[in-house]
Amino acid sequence: MGGRRLPHAMRLRLYRRVLELHNGGMSYRKIQKIIEGEYGVKISRSHISYWVRGIHVPEREPYNVPDLSKREELAWIAGMYAGDGSIKVNRKGRFLSLKVKDRELAEAAARKLSILMGREKPYFVGKLSDGRYYVEIQSRELIDVLIERSNVLNLLEERPVEFIQAFFDCEGYVTGLVSSQGSFLARIGVSNTDYDLMEKIKERLADLGVFGEIYMVHSRGKVIETSKGRSIARRNCYTLEVYRRDAIIRFHDRMKLFTVRKQEKLKDVVDILTRFGLGRRAAVEWIRRYEYRRGMGRQRWFRRKRFLDWEDALEEYERFLIGRKSNH
Q1: Where are the domains of the chain?
Q2: CATH code for the structural domain at 67-158
Q3: Strands of 27-75, DSSP E
Q4: Per-residue model confidence (pLDDT) at position 297
Q5: Which residues pair with 301 in a beta bridge?
Q6: Which pLDDT does position 1 carry in this prediction?
Q7: Which pLDDT belongs to residue 242?
Q8: pLDDT computed for residue 38 by the predictor
Q9: Burial of 2 (0-12, 13-18, 19+ CB in 10 A)
Q10: What beta strand segments (E) does the chain contain?
């Protein structure tokens, strides 16, 4: 069988048939030929020996097959897979890898996967050389579910909250900003190249009272400047953005994000929107809590380690507006 791991149900049938034949007094070589004739599967004599001696027992391997009744966990993992997940198939088997920037998100994935796969302990969380954290799991049965696009979309339809939570944790952003007129604006957004998926997420969010709009960020073939250098976009990229005050507040009320930095910023945004609205006072309060840094890519507002006094925030607000006008 090697690394081409058979489905769990098939392994159970082979295992029980092997024991039946062995109990009938047949040799390993004879069992090997009968199994190949009956099932078209060639298993090694050493593998037969492991089964006969109880070293490997498929009936004791709950972690090899997901419990598909755990829909909450399965939908959450599907959302992560649609965001920062990848599937790898090689001689050793089929692997699902989730690679993310935030350790707490990787740890959440490890816990969700352990529940889904029937393990008592969470999966191992490792760290890559580029600073990202990862979780990897080998399961043909789980990957057979996720690799089918229709299954992923059905999970989004069935459990939209869990799916969208994980997808936003991976691909999303939260920010506040000060407009050139001096008012406070807030945005929750997520970017992806799969337009149909983004449309379906938009629809499910609308069902929750969270209304947003989709627009194209860049088209295929565009040269993109990143912190790692230049790259050429292989696909069109789209952003789904939520910007209405009531929609942002509803998103906060319905979605539990595991990423601390996003959760913290969303909490600040909602607090300012609730207490101060969208005017000048809200903009000053934002600057009191967040510092603007030029040339930092999409994320330009960073939470201060120590909030400014109101007077200092007001002065910085005035300087910020002067700087915006001079740049224009």
Answers
A1: 8-60, 67-158, 166-327
A2: 3.10.28.10
A3: none
A4: 52
A5: 292
A6: 40
A7: 95
A8: 92
A9: exposed
A10: 85-90, 93-100, 126-127, 133-138, 172-178, 184-192, 213-218, 223-226, 229-232, 237-242, 290-292, 301-303
Asked if the domains at 67-158 and 166-327 fall in one CATH topology, the answer is yes
Cα–Cα separations (whole angstroms), residue 128 to 80, 122, 149, 163, 178: 18, 19, 28, 25, 36
- In 3-state terms, what secondary structure has residue 269? helix
Of 200, 190, 167, 203, the C-alpha closest to 238 is 190
3-state secondary structure of 304: coil
- Here the tokens at position 132 are 């990202």
User: For residues 115 and 321, what is the distance between their CA atoms, to the nearest angstrom?
Assistant: 51
pLDDT of residue 2: 38
Beta strands at 290-292 and 301-303: parallel, antiparallel or unpaired = antiparallel
pLDDT confidence of residue 318:
93
Query: What is the spatial distance between Cα 299 and Cα 294, in angstroms, rounded to a whole number?
Result: 9
Return the CATH fold of 166-327: Endonuclease I-creI (3.10.28)
pLDDT along the chain (328 residues), means of 10: 58 90 94 92 90 82 72 95 87 84 94 90 90 89 90 96 95 91 94 94 95 90 70 85 95 92 94 94 96 69 93 93 71
How many Cβ atoms from other residues are within 10 Å of residue 298's Cβ?
9
- Cβ-contact 236, 229 below 8 angstroms: no
Per-residue pLDDT, 138: 84
pTM of the model: 0.77
